[in-house]
Every structure is written in structure tokens, then in C-alpha cells.
Amino acid sequence: MSTSNSKAGNAGASKKSATIRVREQIMWNRLIAVVEEQAVTLVRTAFCTSVREAGDLSAGVFDAHGRMIAQAVTGTPGHVNSMAESVGHFVAKFEGKLVPGDVLVTNDPWMGTGHLHDITMVTPVFRNPKGSAQPRLIGFFASTAHVVDIGGRGFGPDAGEVYEEGLCVPLMKFHKGGEVNEDLIEILRSNVRERDQVIGDFHSLVACNDTGRRRLESMMDEFGLDDLQELAEFIFEHSERATRERLAALPAGRHAYEMRVDGYEQPIDLHVSVQAKDGTMYADFDGTSGPSKYGINVPLTYTKAYACYALKCALAPEIPNNWASLKPFEITAPEGCILNALRPAPVAVRHVLGHLIPDVVLGALQTYKPDLIPAEGASALWNLQMRFTGVRPDTNQARHEMLIFNTGGSGARPASDGLSATAFPSGVHTMSSEVTESIGPIIVWRKELRPDSGGAGQWRGGLGQHIEIGAHDGYHFTLNAMFDRVAFPARGHEGGGNGAAGAVGMDDGTVMKAKGTQLISEGKRLVLDLPGGGGYGAPTARPATLVQRDVRDGYISEAQARQDYPHAFD
Fold it and tell me: What is the pTM of this model?
């Protein structure tokens, strides 16, 4: 072959290769649209407000080996990243045993997302290759949602074993060849308080996966695909290579961080050390406290989910989240510590410590990314799980189970203030007061930003909230408290001040416990002061104009401002 012909051939091959890459990139983007529609279907059909209003869910598409190809933007890192691991358990158990119309389900904390209240639904996808009448398994759609009740003690930290926390559904079939497993429905109906909501949410999960399946089939028809494997390998190859390149560029060395938090019966110490080596990032939680007697323990799957989230946000944020981009992160914790709890440890409110994991991991990354890492924030959601019960003859048959999400302030960043009343790292929305009051005998008397709660600094921490809640006349309610940052507030970085600690009480001045089941009598109000985020940098470096703006806007009282920023009043 002549030199000119060789060059022409190389140019033609290069052009063809580029065309293939563009085509596969388009299909990759289409997959994101497919799973986002899958997630939106769940939001629109869900019965539980935590899904419908707050977006406490995940959705994704997986290859035939159970490896996550793409995830929906809608959802939480704890659900998404733990679901990425859980589908593999289904594949291992049901290999060779699936037929079209099957739908699989579990809420096993160690096989799913860390506690019994999250339902993971997995739908196999079958397709007939050209020239074949025999359907072949080509992938899976999976979704997860938090249900309002799963029996047992209810959503709270008081149980001594996971068996007390509710009904555990092992990996099993919810649909068998297109037929609903009525035996499972009856078991659910007999074990949960909010039957219609819970069973409705099971069906919503099925519907959302089916939306994904139908949209995927349309996409594959359009692009003439028999299966997903070639596209999956393209995505995995590029994602893993890009992630490992980022990690390989990091300087050598091991970096550690530790944080003390409230715990339940005693404070908990969270320790982590991180090290980048040969394109892999290692995070080890050796030194973390042992398990609790109560339900704040965290299965390793949930620890991995939020540790990977923090690492990926800091080190490779632009790379899509999938099996391959998560693969370079190796997360370990000593067996039996509070972040690697073993069955049958109680784990119902594993999110309380789980949501604090990113603060610990990000703290260890300060040396790697000094211009990026924020101060500590409130982090853990202040979930309100409440049971309203009638106490008068005209109301004593009424029962209402309710779940509400609330958020404190995030930590200040190296170049900007923290965000107020923002759910980092979970990413869920706060339910509106109007929606909350429409679903039960509850009155939200106050819900406002909490002045003086953000830590002082060159950049101020985000504000928490002040919330007052009561019941309608004729009702009292029990609160399953699951709050943190009450004894140990969020710490500032680089000379920034701590955020304000949280507080739990009643309107008569009674101080309540931050964790555990407690009664709010008829006519009394629950009063919550949510914690603020830590500040960043020395307060003396904060411009006087920003201090005066905060005072004018009511974020800081003048008295507090004069104490924290005296230079602004010279």
C-alpha cells in the first residue's frame, strides 16, 4: 500500500471511530434521560411524602451483570450508591431463574440501603435478539424509596436489635411472571400501620421501573441495539479511566481526620485516613468507635455510599456516577465498628451517622483540595417521625403516622458563605408546611431561619432553622427523635468559629432528649432549633459590608455581630 493510501485509510478509520464515539455518547445521554423519567414517575406516583415531596429515592439502569450504567439525577447519594451494590446481590441469587414479568424486591439492610424503611425494587429487562424467538436478559432497572412505616417500633433509634425495627423482606420476587405475589402483600398488610401508603409505594416502585424499561426498549429500537453490553463497556471504560487519571495525579501521602459526634448513650468518634495510590483512593475508618446498643449503627454498604460520594464530589465531580467511576474508591471499616455494623445490630436511623461521614472524609481531603473543602455542617437530617393519636371520644380512633424532613446549615466554603437550611449531603427537599398540614392533624406554628446559628468567619456558616410544631385539639403525638449536633456542633475550618448546636424542647421550656421516643401532650408544642454550619477563615477577615448586610437581613443579631466581628463597628 502506498503512503498516501495508508494515510487515507488511517484518516477514514479515525473518522469512523469518531462517528462511533459520538453515537455512543448520544446513547449515553439518552440513558440519563431514561433513568430521569424513571425517577420522575416514582415521584409522581408515590404515596409517601418523603418520596413525593422530598425526593428520598434513587433510580438507575444496570447491565446484565448488575453493574450500574447510569443513575437519575433525582435522588440521594445514600440510596444511589448503595443501590449500585445491592443489584449485584439480586443477580447472584437469581442467576438463571428469571423470566419476563418478574420483579424482585428487598429491604434487607445489609443487602439494600442500610435500614428496613428503604424498599429496593429490581426489574429484569429481556429482549429478543434479531432472528430469535427466545428472550434474553440484557439488564435491570432498579429503584429505591423510603416508606413511612415498615412495622415494628417504627422509624426511630430505640430498638436493641434489627428484628424489633420492622418487617424484613429478603431478596425475593414481588412479581412472578407478571403476577403480583399476593402472599407478600398480605404479609405487608398485616404488619404495617399505614397499609395503603406502604403497599401503594411498592406498586409505585414497580411502575417507575417499568417506565424505564419501556423507554429503554424504544431507545434500543431507535438505535438498532440487541443488548446494552457494548454501550455499557464504552461507558465503563471512559468513566474508570477518567477517574483513575484524576486520582493518579494526586500527591502521595496519607491524611487523616476525626470528629466527635453526639451518639446515643455516649459520644461517638469517627476516624478516617485517606491515601491516593496508583490510581486508587483508599479510605479506612480504623479507629472509629464500636457499635451502639441502639439503632444508630451503620451497615458498611451505607458507609461506602456516603464515603464514595464525598470522595467523588471532591476529586472527580464531573465524571458521571456509575459502577466504573465508583470502582477506584476502596472503602474499609473494622468489622463490628459503628460504621460496619453486623447483623442483628439495630440500624433504623443509620442516616444520622451516615450523613456525617462526608464531613469526616472531606476533612481528610483538605491537604489535597485546600481551596475546595468546606467547614463542617449540620449534615444529618433532622427527621421528624411522629405518631398522632386522638385523646378525646370524638378522636380516639384516629391514628396518623407522619415523616417530615428538616435541615440545618451547611459549612462555609473557602470562598463563600455556607448554605442555610440545606440538606447536604443527602440532597433531599424539605416538605412545605402547607403539604405537611394537609396530610394529618398537625400545625406548623413557626418555621424560619435561626439567627446567630452560622459559625463566624471570613465566610459565615449556613443558618439552621427554628421550628415549632403542635397537634390539632384532641390529639397528642409521640416523637421518635433522631437528632445530632446537639452536644457537639459543626466545627469551623482555618480559624472559623463553630456553628450553633441544636436544641430540642417544648414551648413550656422542657428540655427533651435528642434521640428516642417521647410524648408531646395535647396543647403542647415541639420546639426545634436546628444546628448551623461552621465558619471558614478568621472572622477578622470578613468585610464589614457583609457583616452589616447580615445584621440588616436578620441573619446575625447586632449583639452577636459586635462580639464576633468588632472590626465591622469601628
Answer: 0.94
